[in-house]
Amino acid sequence: MSNDQKLEDVLFYLIEKTNKVIRRYSQIRFIQAGLDITVDQWLVLKKIGDSDRITQIDLANSLYKDRASITRILDLLLAKKLVNKVEGHDKRSYELNLTAAGRKFTDQALTIVKDVRRKGLQSLDAKEQDTLRASLQKIIKNLE
Amino acid sequence: MSNDQKLEDVLFYLIEKTNKVIRRYSQIRFIQAGLDITVDQWLVLKKIGDSDRITQIDLANSLYKDRASITRILDLLLAKKLVNKVEGHDKRSYELNLTAAGRKFTDQALTIVKDVRRKGLQSLDAKEQDTLRASLQKIIKNLE
DNA sequence: TCCATATAATTGATATATCAACTAATTTAA
DNA sequence: TTAAATTAGTTGATATATCAATTATATGGA
User: What is the pTM of this model?
Assistant: First the structure.
């Protein structure tokens, strides 16, 4: 037995746990709604929908994912015909956008996602949410 | 383009990003210190060190990991001879504990980990840390 | 112009997460 | 007491994360 702080009391461990709880709950809600998508696929889909002809590099940077992960997640979204991959002006790159099915799917998923956000934050008022946001940004700044 | 909140402004997305930044920074520090271990292996090692003859089920529950993940992480820690796996009173289960090398390794890693915690939280006073903890626990309660 | 360097994306290897199926051991209940 | 149900752990399949190596294309400088 160590004389150190127990893992359960460590703030960084609580952040990890919170993230897992959010992801698990979101995934369950997607499944219950009959939406065949993972949380990571959702994030990629949403970012493409929010962007204008985004490239894989920009997707990776804004989602804090590796380029390799983006390639593989896109393979699955392409197979589901939710995303289009168009050769870019620069022939090394591609420009991504949603298909009609992708836009429809995104709308459906967004209903679920907004409900998860509402439920997860229901006991935190606006001030508390702002404080939380500020604290997390400080941690990121300290370690990035 | 959607009329919805951008991903970057979503609190849950910020929690995910914070978690990633903490993990990446920790992993880099382990590597720089010559410690051949992943963050997940560290969490398992630390929990075993903090516990008395813990079983895999209890490890999984307290770390919010799947039993299957615990099996595979333990395989690697066993190969590194940092952990012992002893048949439990109940013959279906095993009791885990650290080897002498495991204890030594844990002490070294703990130095790094404490420094990461200090650095990451350096601009947050005790009150702000308590508020952050409370907010995260509310989110967990709302979704668990 | 041509070569060296840089960049976008892919692929392979290993680690982890999740789910389902499975084995072995234990407990419960008829 | 024995059959059914439960529990601990493992294994296989698929998704994702990370790192390194590779391909194709682009760019900058001699």
Answer: 0.94
